[in-house]
Design brief:
By secondary structure, the protein is an alpha/beta fold. The protein has one domain: Rossmann fold, CATH 3.40.50. 45% of the residues lie in helices and 15% in strands. Strand 5, helix 5 and strand 6 form a beta-alpha-beta unit. Helix 1 packs parallel to helix 2, helix 1 packs across helix 8 and helix 3 packs parallel to helix 4. It starts with 11 loop residues before the first strand and ends in a 7-residue tail after the last strand.
């Protein structure tokens, strides 16, 4: 028998990178299952537009935040606390890839921008969110890593280092806060049809066919497929899961 998706009724979920891609899709699905959704994004307009599409502020609201700036993250979290009191779930989906480059040719700017968002920004966000999760009596953190956090690919040193780091950060949060009822897990998507991927594919349509062929399942993912895995980890259905690293990659990392 196929079970209904886990309910998120009554949960308040904060999502960074919530203005587009996987973060946006996670917010839309979470709201459809009863959660109050807070969408934070570097582009406040995009976050607010997604929230407006969900409904009133009691159901969703959008915020601007630069996750690479710890003071701005603290400001954003204070606003979340003022409007919601606490949160039950945190999804860290803000991310960048950066230009393809050999390690020895990776500039300080490329390294700092990608690692700044993907890893340091995630650290700032989790650190600031923990008091609000504790205030709720515990909760669930889900961090977006990547298959590039499990296996290396050429010419993406900044992205690979950041996504491997996300897994270490996730495990650290899991072990530090398990006694206080906070779970932390990482999701590692394979190729996914997001705006970030779209530009790369549009430059050469053969790229999607090449990318799809690398997945044993024979295609790339839709954002909703990644969001479903994220929301299972946010929900109480995964109550005994913490410190896990879940590939959602169509079998890409099987070999």
């Amino acid at each position: 028998m196929i079970k209904a998706p886990a309910s998120l009724d009554g949960k308040t979920i904060l999502i960074t990178g919530g203005g587009s891609g996987i973060g946006r899709e996670t917010g839309l699905i979470a709201a459809s299952r009863g959660a109050r959704v807070i969408l934070a994004d570097i582009d406040a307009g995009k976050a607010s537009a997604v929230a407006a599409g969900i409904g009133s502020e009691s159901a969703a609201f959008g915020l601007g935040v630069d996750v690479t700036n710890s003071a701005d993250v603290a400001r954003m979290m204070a606003e979340v606390e003022a409007k919601s009191g606490s949160i039950d779930g945190l999804v860290c989906a803000a991310g960048l890839t950066g230009d393809a480059t050999l390690l020895a040719e990776c500039t300080d700017e490329t390294w700092n921008s990608v690692v700044g968002v993907n890893l340091t920004g995630m650290f700032f966000t989790i650190r600031a969110a923990i008091p609000l999760l504790l205030k709720a009596g515990g909760g669930s953190i889900v961090n977006l890593s990547s298959v590039a956090g499990l296996v290396a690919v050429p010419n993406q040193v900044q992205y690979i280092a950041s996504k491997f780091g996300v897994i270490g950060l996730t495990k650290s949060a899991a072990i530090d806060y398990a006694p206080q009822g906070i779970r932390a897990n990482a999701v590692c998507p394979g190729g996914t049809r997001t705006p970030m991927l779209a530009g790369w594919v549009e430059a050469d349509p053969d790229r999607e066919r090449f990318l799809a062929a690398g997945h044993p399942i024979g295609r790339i993912a839709e954002p909703a497929e990644i969001a479903e895995a994220i929301l299972w980890l946010i929900s109480d259905a995964s109550s005994f899961v913490t410190g896990a690293v879940l590939p959602v990659d169509g079998g890409l990392t099987i070999p």
